[in-house]
Amino acid sequence: MISEHFDTRTRINMKLALDRVCRSRPRGEDHGFRRSVAENIIRCALTGRTGIGQLVDAGERAMIRTHGEREPV
Question: Which structural domain range is residue 8 located in?
Answer without folding.
Answer: 2-67
